[in-house]
Amino acid sequence: MARRQGISNTLGQDALILGIETSCDETAASVVQGGRKILSNVIASQVDLHRLYGGVVPEIASRKHIELIMPVVDLALQEADVELEALDAIAVTYGPGLVGALLVGLSTAKAMALALDCPLVGVNHIEGHIYANVLEHPTVEPPLVCLTVSGGHTDLLYIDTYGDYEILGRTRDDAAGEAFDKIARVLGLDYPGGPEIARLATGGNPEAIDFPRGLMQADTYDFSFSGLKTAAINYVHTIRQRGDELNTPDIAASLQAAIVDVLAQKTVAAAKAYGVKTILLSGGVGANEALRNELTKTAGCLGMKVYYPSKVLCTDNAAMIACAGHYRFIRGERSPWSLNAAPQLRLGDPVA
Fold first, then answer.
1. How many CA atoms lie within 13 Å of 285's alpha carbon, on the beta-carbon side?
2. Dihedrals φ, ψ of 48, to 5°?
3. Degrees (nearest 5) of the Cα angle 11, 15, 19?
4. For the domain with range 16-130+314-330, which CATH number is right: 3.30.2310.20, 3.30.70.3420, 3.30.420.40, 3.40.50.300?
5. What is the pLDDT of residues 138-154, one digit of tens each?
6. Measured distance CA(177)–CA(153) in Å, rounded
7. pTM tops 0.90
8. Closest by Cα among 280, 262, 259 to 271
9. Sign (positive/negative) of CA torsion 28, 30, 35, 37?
10. Residue 328 and residue 308 in contact, taking contact as beta carbons nearer than 8 Å
């Protein structure tokens, strides 16, 4: 199939974008059409491999990405029934994440784009999570407030137009997902810890333990979860030192409640202050049912609507990267061949 020349005739409505995502322990590729229609979304997870070690081992993750990346890309193109020459651009995560893992996806995308004479578009992984909602809820438009919360990041944003973000607040220390995972490890739960905490919490009392809610009353939209993490770990150690039996469901429920309360109240307060009626929830922790329910309930009392992606689009995937890349592509943004992995990249940093 011959390469299509440009997208001006359709304003990008039919643009075919290949997305590649390798920021942590999922090797993913996806083809998205027009920024909204998912033609394929292939994810090869390494969770079972890293569960043996209680967490992601960067070197092992990088080696596994090298093994999986081309079969995953080939399968994504096959499932989308799209030939390489038909692609309008290749979007790839260049940060944040594990540097070795990022380099596998970035090197693959560069090689393919160069060979195909195809535009390369670098995408911030956290921005990708925001665009998972665009795929799931194509009629939702800014202005809105978005809470993006994952294992390594907790960001609260005001979005006036897609691609234009105002950082309202972010974690000053541990991210919410990081707190879940670290406390789960102390409790001896399987990796990944967040889903295990959520599972146990359904059988516990969320008021059993009065864990601290960091910065809850402070005049800021920033978050802090290190104090909660320390309090929970100290509580577990104290119970064990006394020789008493841990009530793990109560600990999980109380921990989850402390995190969810802060996230929901600050997000709704920001939406109220900015006069918006639409809230987006995104990121891996966005799959947490307690957070979804509390945010929906709290926002609903003020006439606000909360949107979140299906769980497969909350976790790391390449469809969200292709979607975010689509909007950068139709704005005329292109990444240079010198684009490098940026493991500490944050929202608001200059676009590559």
1. 27
2. -60, -35
3. 135
4. 3.30.420.40
5. 999 999 999 999 888 89
6. 8
7. yes
8. 280
9. negative
10. no
